[in-house]
Design a protein that fits this description.
alpha/beta; binds xanthosine-5'-monophosphate
Length: about 550
């Protein structure tokens, strides 16, 4: 499969380069500069990313370009452009002119393969403290800005290109054209990496890997595990057994509904109901971390108990996706972040299972596209994230059956309300949800999501039951009952988030319905905290 490799020097926006190339239906992989893989014949080109470092630093990130430069197409971006200059006969200095933010790029070589079809003047986004004072050997300028003469250059007789600005960011208005010129033109990629081609390749690879062995998968009702399940099912049919654990902390009717929809999709699913165990062990526990630990441990024990019943299981499948596995190149040259799935703890080692992760190469929106191509219903594809510890961390303090019943009803009213509030076609209403200055609602950050209603437009929502009682009046009677908080956020990855500017009329309806219908609640609040400094969940 043809691909482009992205060498990550630690820039904040390296992932975006990957996203953009994938939008062109070109498969690409991001690798930290200090763990760069062998170049095989499938590699059609290499992108050098930006970095928070200066090439003039003693410990500046380095990469060996021997065997690549002059032979394969290269695109240096920001630090990548400076690195090419610094290494191959040019020079880089600290910049005197301000080189942050908007600039107007003037194309001086309209025939350059990188700039074909780019307007003579267009907006680009600069973000660097260093500047390229002189070009590397054999290079010529192909575009400049008022402050930066060497804003883009190419090396004569080589498919080597470099840009001082960031073509991958939204503010570089013709950046996609440049990336497309590079990937489809200069590298000659076919641009045929689509959900269908992904599915075809993945099915083949799964069959080759697991053969006639049995595979186990933990389903959560979430998008990733569902898509992984349907994909594996297509590849190996009933050699796949899925386990869906009921921890007793799920939303109203969730266990039954999700189980039912999995059966409709032809998946072989075991519903593992361990509600009683979870509630028993959580009884009287109020400390959040302790609650989380108990829930995590019981999940693994339950999964393990059911998994052991599946004879001859050799593989454990997981819904790991690309952002979980990308190693970012840290500033000091060490990999700074590796997330992994801990859902099933030490199970693979103990049971001697191999790991299958068919979605490892996909970003979240690509998982959704693949899911749609597999025929999974929109309702499942568009589900909000939901934490593993479930409602257990949305009941502050100790968890009881009674509190769960109250929270389930209030949560159901809120979520149904979000789904029923139509936004179809109302751009102004959708944009208003993000508040002034915030640019993203879910449908904007993920082009596969259409905002039919409030639910679709936002990242995540839920209700929190507070350990607070307050006085109210209902009819002629004084009440002394619980308070719930509504939480709704927009986000692109859950790492940062902002509260949603939900319409007042909507909040009023939800509040009325909760107070009128849910026994035990007489007050509804709306959480207007962003992350940071708050978090999305309250515990
Ligand atoms: P916080 O509360 O840290 O949440 O802002 C960020 C995102 O992660 C989800 N979350 C979890 N997901 N297991 C999960 O699978 C967990 O223990 C967990 N805790 C938080 C949260 O719902 C939000 O989407």
């Amino acid at each position: 499969m043809e691909k482009i490799l992205i060498i990550d020097f630690g820039s904040q926006v390296t992932q975006l380069i990957g996203r953009r190339l994938r939008e062109l239906n070109v498969y690409c992989e991001i690798h930290p500069f200090n763990k760069f893989p062998e170049i095989d014949p499938d590699v059609k080109g290499v992108v050098l990313s930006g970095s928070p470092c200066s090439v003039r630093d003693e410990n500046a990130p380095q990469v060996n370009l021997e065997g690549i430069k002059g032979k394969l197409p290269i695109l240096g971006i920001c630090y990548g452009a400076q690195y090419l200059a610094h290494k191959f006969g040019g020079s880089v200095n600290a910049s005197l002119a301000r080189e942050y933010g908007r600039a107007i790029l003037e194309v001086t070589s309209p025939d350059s393969p990188l700039l074909l079809g780019v307007s003579p003047k267009s907006q680009v986004w600069m973000s660097h403290g260093d500047t390229i004072a002189s070009l590397p050997d054999g290079a010529e300028v192909i575009a400049s800005t008022a402050d930066v003469v060497n804003a883009a250059y190419s090396i004569k007789g080589e498919p080597t290109y470099a840009v001082q600005f960031h073509p991958e960011v939204f503010h570089t208005t013709e950046g996609m054209r440049m990336l497309s010129n590079f990937a489809l033109g200069i590298c000659g990629c076919a641009g045929d990496w689509t959900p269908d081609s992904f599915i075809e390749t993945a099915v083949k690879e799964i069959r080759e890997k697991v053969g006639d062995d049995k595979v186990i998968l933990g389903l959560s009702g979430g998008v990733d595990s569902t898509v992984a399940g349907v994909l594996l099912n297509r590849a190996i049919g009933h050699n796949l057994t899925c386990i869906f654990v009921n921890n007793g902390l799920l939303r109203k009717n969730e266990f039954e509904d999700v189980l039912e929809s999995y059966k409709d999709m032809g998946l072989n699913v075991i519903g593992a109901d361990a509600s009683a165990d979870f509630l028993r062990e959580l009884s009287g526990v109020t400390e959040p971390e302790k609650k989380r630990k108990i829930i995590g441990r019981l999940f693994v024990e339950t999964f393990d108990r059911y998994a052991r019943k599946i004879e001859n299981a050799r593989w454990l499948a997981q819904g790991t996706i690309y952002p979980d596995v990308i190693e970012s190149a840290g500033i000091n040259g060490t990999a700074s972040k590796i997330k992994s799935h801990h859902n099933v703890g030490g199970l693979p080692e103990e049971m001697n299972l191999g790991i299958v992760e068919p979605l490892r190469s996909l970003f979240k929106d690509e998982v959704r596209r693949v899911g749609r191509a597999l025929g999974i219903r929109d309702e499942l594809i568009g589900r909000h994230p939901f934490p593993g510890p479930s409602l257990g961390i949305r009941i502050l303090g100790d968890v009881t059956e009674e509190k769960l019943a109250v929270l389930r009803e209030a949560d159901d009213i809120f979520i149904r309300g979000l789904r029923n509030y139509s936004l179809d076609g109302n751009r102004a209403a959708i944009e208003a949800l993000a508040g002034p200055g915030a640019s993203f609602v879910r449908s904007a950050s993920d082009p596969t999501m259409k905002a039919h209603n409030l639910y679709d437009a936002i990242w995540q929502a839920g209700v929190i039951l507070l350990p607070v009682k307050s006085v109210g009046v209902m009819g002629d009677e004084r009440t002394y009952e619980s308070t719930v908080a509504l939480r709704a956020v927009i986000s692109t990855d859950g790492m940062t988030a902002d509260w949603v500017h939900l319409p007042y009329d909507f909040l009023a309806d939800v509040s009325n319905e909760i107070i009128n219908k849910v026994r035990g609640v007489n007050r509804v609040c709306y959480d207007v905290s962003s992350k940071p400094p708050a978090t999305i969940e309250w515990e």
